[in-house]
Amino acid sequence: MTTLQLPKEQGSWALVNIDAKCKTLLQARLWFLCMKNGSLTTLMRKWNLTGPTANPSNVHGLPTGIPYIRQYAFDMAYVPPPGPQETKKRFKNRLYRVLLTMATMNIGTSELRIVRKYPGIAWQRVWTNVHTTGLSNHIKSVWYTAIHEIIRTIERLAAIHLTTTTSCVRCGVTDTLLHRLISCEEGSVIWTWTKSQDSGNTMHTPLTHTRAMDPTPDLLSLAPPPKKNMWR
Q: From CA 130, how far away is CA 136, in angstroms rounded?
C-alpha cells in the first residue's frame, strides 16, 4: 500500500487499491452469476462454491486451468454471503474492504514523510480541517502540496540537486516554503489579508506546521486565489 492509499483521516487521498478493486468486481460478478441457472452455476455447485465456502478453502481440489475460480474459492472463504436485505453495492463494498485487508495485512503502511519530519504536530486535526470543511478540490490540492512540503521551492530543488542555489529569483532570500507562502510578492498580500480576517479567532488550531498564525480552512476558501506563478 502506498501512502496515497492511506485514509483521508491519515493525511492522504484514500486512492483505490487497483488489485483489490479488480478482484472485487470479478468475485462479485461470479457470485451473482452463481445465483442464476447456467453452465457456470452447475460447475460452481459441483465444486461447492455456490454458497459459503470452506475456510481454509479447498483450492487444490479445483482444476488448475481456471485460476480465477481457484482465486474465487480462496477469497470468498473470508467473505460471508450477502444478506437478504444487503444490496449489491453494499456487498461489493464489504467484499472490497475484506480483500483490501487481505492484500495489505502483510505489507503494512508507510508513515507519511511529513509526519515523521514533524512528529509534534497535531496531524489528526490538520487532516480533519482539510477534508471536512467543504473546501473545493482545487483548494484541497493546493494545501496538500503546501502541508506536505512538495511545492517546488528553490530550497527543495537544491536539496534534490536540481539547482546550485537556494535564493529566490524574485527577491534573493532563501526560497523556503514559508517564504513562498507568506513573504514573497503576492504571498505576503494574501497572508496579510488572511490574518486580518482571523484576528481574535481562537477556535481553530493551526492548519499547518509553518510558524506564526496560520489561516483556517474556512478563511482559505475566502482568500483571493493565488496566481499560477505563485506555485512556480
A: 10
